[in-house]
Amino acid sequence: MQIGVPKEVKNHEYRVGLTPDSVQELVSAGHQVLVEQNAGAAIDFADEDFRRAGAVIVPSAAEVFARADMIVKIKEPQPDECQMLKTGQLLFTYLHLAADPRQAELLLKSGAIAMAYETVTDDRGHLPLLAPMSEVAGRMAVQAGAHHLEKAQGGRGVLLGGVPGVAPARVLILGGGVVGSNAAGVALGIGADVTIMDRSVERLRELDRMFPASIRCVYATAAAIENYLPEADLVIGAVLLPGASAPRLVTREMVGRMKPGAVVVDVAIDQGGCFATSRPTSHQDPTYVVDGVIHYCVANMPGGVARTATQALNNVTLPFVLQLADNPVRALLTNANLRNGLTIHCGRVTHKAVADSLGHDFTDAFEALKK
Fold it and tell me: Considering 31, 49, 96, 198, which one is annotated as catalytic?
């Protein structure tokens, strides 16, 4: 199979779909890899590194899309990229379609087969291709929040960990999954006062064991959120419904009762955000203010540490890319976990949560593959 890796074009996105090490694995398995010129240059993966791994360097994204059977990316395809997709061409990347009806329409129109990293599962029902980016985003959320709490950034002027004689900042984390637990670990490491909320009592028990005697684990009712929110200096939105839009847990009125200069970091923004006041931002212009509260809603947070993020993601995507490259139809028919990533197949929506979120008809993925 010919596998194409275009350069990412989203604002301040420097990650790349395949590393030279991954290219070498694919070439050794008998596949050809086409990499757009300078696709990884920004994170020190030079064209020569890809050539040594066996890739063919091509001058433009248009040529990558024209020649490749499968496109491997990081971020959702932008409109110009959607228009370069071909009928039956396989796209493997993050999609987050529930919050992006325009992208969904373009992908449906293209006739391509679009697979989403974020809904591929493992035998335990976890999301292995989302997990490394969630780990990165959770850790970055505390880093970003701490920075924007500084007075020079418009924040309250508080230090997360405090100092002897001065209380630490209060951090509230909504969601106890991979993002939330990683955010909690970093915030606790800094010395912050941390509360984490989730609607799974079993998950709260796990978090209590993970961070004994150093974290408040609270069941996430609307009343609990409303009670804790006004006291928080930093609030991290870390909720996830796989494939679906994020639930809006915090209303505009609740934001209005927060402290002036408090910071909101909405990691759920890829799926629409969990604050009513959230809207996507970029690394170039990451924040805005609503009712005196700083909102950090960067939709590709891991792109800020692009080399680390690329390597972490390739560690988990490569086995699936190899399966798809060897025989995509067989891989999808025989591997239910991989098939859970199939979101659009030749003009039909094949993921139930995406179909429900966007108001489209749903076609079962297994049935779509057999037609």
Answer: 96
Question: CA 222, 225, 228, 230 torsion: positive or negative?
Answer: negative
What stretch(es) of the chain map to CATH 3.40.50.720?
A: 2-119+306-370, 131-299
8-state DSSP, 213: T
β-pair type (90-93, 287-290): unpaired
Q: Is the pTM of this model over 0.85?
A: yes
The CATH number of 2-119+306-370 is which of 1.10.10.10, 3.40.50.720, 3.40.190.10, 2.60.40.10? 3.40.50.720
Condensed to tens digits (0 to 9), the pLDDT of residues 63-107 reads: 999 999 999 999 999 999 999 999 999 999 999 898 889 999 999
Q: For the domain 131-299, what is the CATH code? A: 3.40.50.720
DSSP string, 117-145: GGG---TTS--TTTHHHHHHHHHHHHHHH
Q: Residue 76: CB partners within 8 Å, gap ≥ 6? A: 10, 93, 94, 95, 96, 97, 100, 103
CB 3 within 8 A of CB 65: no
Query: Reduced to 3 states, what is the DSSP secondary structure of residue 90?
Result: strand
Task: Identify whether 270 is a catalytic site residue.
Answer: yes
User: What residues contact residue 330 under an 8 Å CB cut-off, 6+ apart?
Assistant: none
Active site residue: 49, 193, 198, 270, which one? 270
